[in-house]
Design goal:
It is built from six helices and nine strands. Strand 3, helix 2 and strand 4 form a beta-alpha-beta unit. The chain has 241 residues and is an alpha+beta fold. The protein starts with 9 loop residues before the first helix and ends with a helix. It has two domains: 95 residues, no CATH class; 116 residues, Aminopeptidase. The strands form two sheets. Strands 5, 6, 7, 8 and 9 form a five-stranded antiparallel sheet that branches. Strands 1-2-3-4 form a four-stranded mixed sheet, covered by helices on one side. It is 39% helix and 18% strand. The longest helix is centred in the last third of the chain and has 23 residues. It is globular and about 60 Å long.
């Protein structure tokens, strides 16, 4: 993460969330050297997951004369990979109008309804009462990752046969920063997940989920704990000798 977001206006936070998500996609691409594609204008990523977010292209510049040939090449690439749907994302500095006329020729539709939330780290409410019996653990090995994926799949109501594919994808993403995963245990039982990604000047939790609807407060506690751990790590690594 090159910069720390200090502007907390609504527009700045929206931009930071978008920039962070773009960095998630970069990380997803770079974590798979076999399928990694990146140049000065595009990043492309592929996974075995049948979800549009996990297969796509990130555009970093305005379209040029060869834009359509790259779109056609990309469509063929994903068809060969047997991907039914993939997404085409724009960096925050690009506008819908920059690419819409080119992409619409190939059947792309524009969507701006992806939800996002933001909080200023200095305003985290650390005085909230802790849930008795709740323990937060960092995912640091394959066994913990298997548990994380199991709860993640249950929480999102995903097909159970996606577990192996998600596990494979998350193992490639790794255990170290910029991405950390957390498990929430209630009385020794795993009940909640959170995923913290550092990028774009913001901390992003795109994959937080509880295995039961009524325990969303536990999910929040897992995320809050992850942020607090991050703050402590940042202080420890930033302090002069």
């Amino acid at each position: 993460m090159d910069t720390i977001q200090t502007d907390v206006s609504d527009q700045a936070l929206v931009t930071a969330i978008r920039a962070n998500l773009c960095d998630v996609f970069r990380h997803m691409s770079r974590s798979d050297p076999v399928n990694h594609f990146e140049n000065e204008r595009f990043v492309r990523w592929y996974t075995s997951l049948e979800h549009p977010w996990f297969n796509g292209v990130l555009c970093t510049d305005l379209p040029t004369d060869d834009a359509e040939s790259f779109i056609e090449e990309t469509i063929k690439y994903f068809h060969k990979k047997q991907v039914a749907v993939f997404t085409w994302w724009l960096e925050p500095h690009l506008k819908r109008s920059d690419w819409e006329s080119v992409l619409s020729k190939y059947g792309f539709g524009f969507s701006d309804d992806t939800p996002g939330m933001a909080i200023v780290l200095s305003e985290l409410n650390e005085s909230m009462a802790k849930r008795q019996g709740l323990e937060i653990r960092v995912v640091e090995d394959e066994n913990a990752m298997h548990t994380w994926v199991n709860i993640f799949v249950k929480g999102y109501g995903l097909p159970l046969d996606w577990e192996d594919q998600i596990f494979e994808t998350w193992m490639k993403l790794g255990f170290d920063f910029p991405m950390h995963n957390y498990l929430g245990y209630l009385n020794g039982e795993p009940v909640s997940t959170s995923c913290l990604f550092l990028g774009g000047g913001a901390d992003f939790d795109p994959f937080a989920r509880s295995a039961r609807d009524e325990i969303s407060s536990r999910r929040s506690a897992v995320f809050r704990n992850g942020i607090q751990r991050l703050q402590k790590a940042w202080i420890q690594t930033s302090m002069p000798d």
